[in-house]
Amino acid sequence: MLKKRVSLVSIFLPFLVCLPLLFISCDEEGLEEIDGFDRGEMLASLADDLIIPNFEALQESVSKLSIATNEFVQNTNEENLLKMRAAWVEAVTNHQHCTSFGFGPANLSLGAYGTVLGVFPVDEEEVEANILKADVNLARSFSRDVRGFFTVEYLIYGNDKTEIQVIESFDQQRKDYLLLVIDELTMTTESIVNNWKTDYREKFINNDGTAAGSSVSILYNEFVKDYENIKNYKVELPAGLTAGQVSSDPTLVEAYYSGISKQLIREHFSSSKNIWMGQTRDGQDIISFEEYLVALEGGPTLVAATKAAIVEIDNALAALPDVKLSEMVDSEEVVTLRTKLQANTANFKSSMSSLLGISITFNSGDGD
Amino acid sequence: MEQPIPVAPLVTFRMIFGLVMLFSCLRYMWMGWVDTQLVDPLLHFHYYGFDWIRPLPRAGMYGVFTLMSLSCLAIFLGWYYRLFSVVFFLCFTYVELIDITYYLNHYYFVSIVAFLMIFVPANCYFSLDVLRNPLIKRTEVSRWCIGIFKLQIGIVYCFAGLAKINYDWLIRALPLSIWLPAKTSIPIIGFIFKYKFTAFLFSWIGMLFDTLIVFGLLFKKTRWLSYIAVVIFHTLTGILFQIGVFPIVMIFAVTIFFSASFHQQLLDKLNTLLPNIGTSNPLRNTSTGSKSKIRVAPLLICFFAFQILFPWRYLLYPGNVFWTEEGYRFSWRVMLMEKAGTATFFVKDAESGREGSVINSQFLNQHQEKQMAMQPDLILQYAKYLKDHFLAQGMTEPRVRAEVLVTLNARPAQLLIDPAVDLSQQIDQWQNKKWILPLNTDTLP
User: Fold this and answer.
1) What is the pLDDT of residue A18?
2) How buried is B198 (Cβ within 10 angstroms: 0-12 exposed, 13-18 middle, 19+ buried)?
3) Which residues of chain A does B244 touch, with a Cβ-Cβ cutoff of 8 Å?
């Protein structure tokens, strides 16, 4: 027995000798903090300077849209139609800056905010059927493609209709449905802002771990999903670049009726960029993932790679021809945009979570 | 090996195993994992050679879990023990084999222990079976009946320790330098995780602990100290990482190393709380007789030869085992690397030449996607699934390729497999997968 123990010790002697050496060798830098980063501070910064202001801007523009709609309903004329459309453009632009935050108060009963009220394409037939029904209750309906920003768009722009035709189409039932959809937008955005400002802000900032279910993990998850939505649903599907499609389909673009798809994609990507780089919509610098990454092992390399990829995407977005997206879904430029968006996916999706040590799901991989 | 020793350690082991597994089963159902992991997914990733294993419909899966929970209870009570130890082993292993993306070393460990439990008379003392049939009562069993569990636990720890002897773990303190700083918000001890020193210390202690602990447990003098180390070590890993019931399983499993008198006292104390179950029965049948001979000796020898040899199979493959994962599983490589990938699949209709990318979330849940995106054999399985899916959709000749960017221990992401190769033409086999690209180790973090 004794002999056995001795031989074991001799096997591990080299390691035991190395151990103190190790302590000496890393004494200098060893006590340096590898993570001098304060996640609570990042969460506070994101909540106060980005998430809440973005939702507030959305709420404000939605309430303007609501006022404009009411005016249009009372005085259904071309001037009011144009005012209402302008209010919609402002609101849907602000919407792009909120779809990443579909958690907490913005996790609605039908799903994350953006996947409920930002759904496209609209189911035109079901919308028309709903209009003819006497008592439609959106809160009791599970259909996502008969509500939200793009249903409003369908109603106020029409599918290939002149302004006069749109105005003429607005009988009382159509007006009622429009008001119903707008009401849901108003109430939802109001409740999101109120919730954030009352108790959720504290909860969000205090839940500053990295385990599954922590604020960083939830925010990160939604951020990545929302980023992938740009490529998957706003670019690839209309361009026919999804597996199994036999051709492009221009009607699948976001904001097909108004034709502002390209503009919205740019806004959407700038929202993703703002979250990653830590920047408010008016360009003020705040603390976010970029600063967090820089403080970590392997982080600076990833930051450099991500920044380069972002520049490429910005260039690809700028290079899109000056026509509606639905009219150029087959162009080379759209394929390039898709390629550039994809090239950055791994940076956002796997490399970043790996360095941050964020648990994305409750199951642990190499787990135990 | 056939020398008789007191049965007490085996009996507490049986009871603890039954209880912990019961807790584990109930927890699994309570967390809703029967639905999210087994019933809901559109497809399941299978274990090599087990693609015939299919999940049952929802009611069936809950039935299996109910049966599994009941068999845990039966094992705990020693009630129709032989029958229910077989039932538990089959149920547990069946569930485990449904989807490889949920592979955990501790599930494998549980399966192995459940398998070994079938062959030992753990119900011959302090059990309902003894109440039913006092003739089976024994206070002693052959040495091998307890030795096999000690050997198995020793194998787990030693291999886990040996696997930690590598450059990233010891010299770069990776992945702990990634994982620990993310834990600074843990109360009281959180602050120590922001120092680089802590990651190094934990890496080395972890390696030494795993490799040596079983020897500490074997000897009486060091046993209690070693057990305290076991409790501290597993509690700490349990707090730090989301690893479910594994710490509890190990903390309880290693009590089998304790002396027979310790276990006997434990059972005696338990017995005072209960009506007579058989410890106070003076009719002691101490002869082990021919009944306990190792009739299963050839089986056990093969089993442990497999246990000791199989983890080394990675040496037969070229390349870095962490990168290729050829020979990675079933080798007690526990919490050993930080690896993550993003896999984009492209399906090309060879007839029309049109190629499109796949939206993974339409087919996989988040966990499956995460696991698939860094493991070549799962990438291949998914590619095969996509081929079949698009064939069924009417595509005449789907070709599937994938761009897979993987980061390992904070290295910049690199391509895991050849993005040009048509995966639908590849076969999953034991041989080296030639389409895996080598890890470029120049790019240290």
Assistant:
1) 46
2) buried
3) 364, 367-368
Q: Is the pLDDT of residue B64 over 90?
A: yes
CB contact under 8 A, B356 and A360: no
Please check whether residue A43 is in contact with residue A210, taking contact to mean a CB–CB distance below 8 angstroms.
Answer: no
The number of C-beta contacts closer than 8 angstroms across A and B is 195
On chain B, the residues whose CB falls within 8 A of the CB of A354 are 178, 338-340, 407, 410
Q: How far apart are CA A222 and CA B203, in angstroms?
A: 33
CA–CA dist B122, B120 (Å, integer): 6
CB nearest to A243's CB, from B357, B370, B371: B357
Rounded Cα distance between A235 and A225, Å, is: 15
> What is the C-alpha to C-alpha distance for residues B443 and B440, in angstroms, rounded to an integer?
6
Q: How far apart are CA B322 and CA A64, in angstroms?
A: 56
Is B41 in the A-facing interface, judged by CB distances under 8 Å? no
pLDDT band at A139 (very low <50, low <70, confident <90, very high): confident
Residue of A nearest to B197 (CA): A30
In the three-class reduction of DSSP (H, G, I as helix; E, B as strand; rest coil), residue B400 is classed as: strand
ipTM: 0.89
Q: Which residues of A touch B104 (CB under 8 A)?
A: 364, 367-368
> For residue range B388-416, what is the model confidence (pLDDT) as tens digits?
999 999 999 999 999 999 999 999 999 99
| Partner-chain residue, chosen from B106, B182, B367, that has the shortest CB–CB distance to A210 | B182
